[in-house]
From TrEMBL, chain A:
Transmembrane segments: 70-91, 103-128, 148-168, 209-230, 258-278
InterPro entries assigned to the protein according to its UniProt record, in alphabetical order: MetI-like (IPR000515), MetI-like_sf (IPR035906)
CDD domains: TM_PBP2
Keywords per UniProt: Cell membrane, Membrane, Transmembrane, Transmembrane helix, Transport
Iron in keyword set: no
All copies of domain ABC transmembrane type-1, residue ranges: 66-274
The keyword Transport is assigned to this record: yes
Localization terms from the record: Cell membrane
Record's protein name: ABC transporter permease
Family statement drawn from the similarity comment of this UniProt entry: Belongs to the binding-protein-dependent transport system permease family. CysTW subfamily.
Its membrane topology: Multi-pass membrane protein
Main localization of the protein described in the UniProt heading: membrane
PANTHER family per record: INNER MEMBRANE ABC TRANSPORTER PERMEASE PROTEIN YDCU-RELATED (PTHR42929:SF1), INNER MEMBRANE ABC TRANSPORTER PERMEASE PROTEIN YDCU-RELATED-RELATED (PTHR42929)
Record organism: Pseudogemmobacter lacusdianii
Lineage of the organism: Bacteria, Pseudomonadati, Pseudomonadota, Alphaproteobacteria, Rhodobacterales
UniProtKB/TrEMBL annotation, chain B:
PROSITE patterns associated with the record: TAT
Chief place where the protein resides: periplasm
Keyword Signal: yes
Lineage, opening ranks: Bacteria, Pseudomonadati, Pseudomonadota, Alphaproteobacteria, Rhodobacterales
Subcellular location: Periplasm
This protein's name: Extracellular solute-binding protein
Keyword tRNA processing recorded: no
Length: 286, 362
């Protein structure tokens, strides 16, 4: 039986999805980044230029937030790794199989509501009139509300809250795949908990760590709503700068597109390097 | 029994419908797609209009002119919007981009309900046509907590840059440059700089550098006056820029709040309803505008629902004394409001838009 048509039909939708909805917008952005003006006004012709790219390098006012964004995203990724790894281990190896679904559902529950609502829940929790300040003031621990919003604390909290699952799930999946008898064999051969972790669990969950780190880093670099709603003037992320070029009613889209291309290139390079380093270590471990 | 095949068939049909739903929605003439600010088409009027005419009003709330302009430009190949809400000083920009159609006033018997100060204004007209229907007046002022901020500080833009209020100040970043320009004693309307681009650039640069230098005082850059309103309500700030519409809702006595037009002056604007050049439901749009202008007390409804000052004659007559007090501007206040210039605002915002990105990035 000729399965070729069925195969083509089966692959058509994913191909359409990837080409049109993922690559399409990126190619459109790349094209716009080389235009002198966009959106096009009636009667105007398209003129190609490199000026949108040179604008970035000509002014360190743009370079600094780009570097700040990359450093912050990298740090937030490492912090999230440290916070979620023990949780992933607990879920994979410390919870009885029949209870795992319940625990996962509890973790997933906040993700059933939209991102903006989850961000506002942080505002409601940490605001001057929020739950934390209400408790501290009523217990007499504070006389005036403690400012917790619009700085690195609220920004980090938002980032961690929103991207925790992207880190947790790949690590959980990797750890769960490690056979229990491998750990038992290690214990029988005299390996302590620390040795078992560094010699068995960590090397075998490295792929999950790499995937989680790459996912979280890329998501953090591009996030707009978290810094816009929870950040302050001292924590501006590059995505906010880019957003400004798209909000104005003028012809600034090409500049915003060029800056987006630069951010995408930088973040993909860093993510690829992260993966490469981990893959190499994996190769060496073999 | 429901077979797997029938489920798939139903799902396929539903998917096809959802793909074509926008086209179906556009094809209906019994609807008007409106982009406007919150409260500018009051809910009571909307319900009454829909019940009486059978025309559905699909209202998309907008928060600023830039996003609205960009939305309409990107929809050019497949227009959706019938009516947009244009600030008077942005009319030339919308016209220049072929987004607005002239308004046929002869089809709007209720036009006379508008205060002639607005309905006869020069900025509404160009090339012998009227380009929109003025609806409400907006002005940016200074909000403050009278328990913590003196009357003097609460009446000057200087408070936004005053170390004494560090961490308790915020403003809309797009407007901050205009406010700094006013505070530095320069022309907020840019009328003086129309023929001197270098001077205009210099004024914007001065204001931009001043805002950046005082960034440490600021709690947060915001995107809209509604966000400013929330920061006041949540007790996050003591001083902040806020538009009159949002301020009016805080002036009801439930929290300590003061609103002033600062002594250095401010900018004002008139929001107006324009018919989109390629409106898919132009006829229904005229039906809407006619009913809107003819509705008794529509001005009062707009004032109550949006907090803005309506452009309708006698809008305050049905109001209570307390409401009238909120909506009353003194002559001195009015003198300090400088309306954005349709001829100079293009230059002003071309320069300011870039400076805003630089401030945010700094």
């Amino acid at each position: 039986m000729n399965t070729q048509p069925a195969r083509i039909a089966l692959l058509a939708f994913p191909a359409f999805w990837i080409l049109l909805l993922h690559l399409g917008p990126m190619l459109a952005m790349l094209r716009i980044s080389f235009l002198e003006s966009f959106p096009p006004l009636p009667g105007s012709a398209e003129v190609a230029t490199l000026a949108n790219y040179t604008a970035f390098f000509a002014n360190d006012v743009y370079i600094v937030p780009m570097l700040r964004t990359l450093v912050f995203s990298f740090s937030a990724t490492l912090l999230l790794l440290v916070l979620t790894y023990p949780l992933a281990f607990f879920l994979a190896k410390g919870v009885r199989a029949e209870r795992k679904l319940t625990y996962l559902m509890i973790l997933f529950a906040p993700f059933w509501v939209g991102e903006i609502i989850r961000i506002f829940s942080i505002t409601v929790t940490f605001g001057n009139r929020g739950a934390v300040n209400w408790v501290l003031l009523n217990l007499g621990i504070l006389e005036r509300p403690l400012r917790m919003l619009y700085g690195y604390f609220s920004l980090s909290t938002g980032i961690i809250h929103l991207s925790a699952l992207y880190m947790l799930m790949p690590i959980y999946a990797a750890i769960e795949k490690i056979p229990d008898n491998l750990l038992e064999a290690g214990r029988d051969l005299g390996a302590g908990p620390v040795s078992r972790f560094f010699d068995i669990i960590l090397p075998l969950s490295r792929e999950g760590v790499a995937t989680g780190c790459a996912l979280v880093f890329l998501a953090n670099v591009g996030t707009y709503s978290v810094p816009a709603l929870l950040g302050g003037p001292g924590t501006s992320m590059f995505s906010e700068t880019i957003g400004t070029f798209f909000h104005t009613a003028g012809s600034q889209w090409p500049v915003g597109s060029a800056f987006s291309v630069l951010l995408l290139t930088a973040s993909l390079t860093i993510a690829a390097l992260m993966m490469l380093v981990i893959q190499r270590r994996k190769g060496r471990a073999r | 029994m429901i077979s797997r095949r029938s489920i798939l068939r139903t799902a396929g049909a539903a998917a096809s419908l959802s793909l074509f739903a926008p086209a179906i929605a556009r094809a209906k003439s019994q609807e008007v797609n409106i982009m406007t600010y919150a409260g500018h088409v009051p809910d009571a009027f909307k319900a009454k209009f829909e019940a009486e005419t059978g025309i559905t009003l699909n209202i998309r709330i907008v928060a600023d002119q830039g996003k609205q302009f960009n939305t309409m430009v990107t929809e050019t190949s497949s227009p959706v919007t019938d009516i947009c809400t244009v600030a008077a000083h942005r009319i030339p920009q919308f016209r220049g981009s072929d987004l607005l159609a002239p308004v046929d006033v002869s089809r709007l018997p209720g036009w006379s309900a508008l205060n002639p100060i607005y309905s006869e204004a020069d900025w509404l007209k160009a090339d012998g046509d009227v380009w929109s229907v003025p609806v409400a007046l907006g002005a940016t002022g200074l909000g403050s907590n009278p328990d913590l901020v003196s009357e003097e500080d609460g009446s000057s833009w200087g408070s936004l840059f005053n170390e004494a209020f560090a961490g308790r100040v915020s403003y809309v970043v797009l407007d901050a440059i205009s406010l700094a320009i006013a505070y530095q004693g320069n022309d907020i309307t840019f009328n003086s700089y129309i023929d001197d681009r270098a001077k205009a650039q210099d004024v914007v640069n001065q204001a931009r550098d001043f805002v950046i230098a005082n960034k440490g005082i600021l709690l947060k850059y915001t995107e809209s006056s509604t966000e400013q309103q929330q920061l006041f309500i949540n007790d996050e700030i003591d001083v902040g820029q806020i538009s009159f519409g949002e301020a009016a809702r805080l002036l009801n006595g439930e929290m300590p709040f003061r609103f002033r037009i600062p002594k250095e002056g401010t900018f004002g604007f008139v929001r107006s309803l324009g018919i989109a050049r390629h409106a898919p439901n132009a006829e229904a749009a005229y039906t809407f505008l006619d009913a809107f202008l003819s509705e008794p007390e529509i001005g009062t409804q707009i004032a109550r629902s949006s907090g803005s000052l309506p452009t309708f004659s006698g809008f305050a007559d049905p109001m209570t004394e307390a409401e009238k007090a909120i909506f009353a501007f003194s002559d001195e206040d009015l003198k300090r409001i400088h309306f954005e210039s349709p001829t100079a605002s293009g230059l002003k915002y071309e320069l300011i838009d870039v400076a805003v990105a630089e401030i945010k990035a700094s």
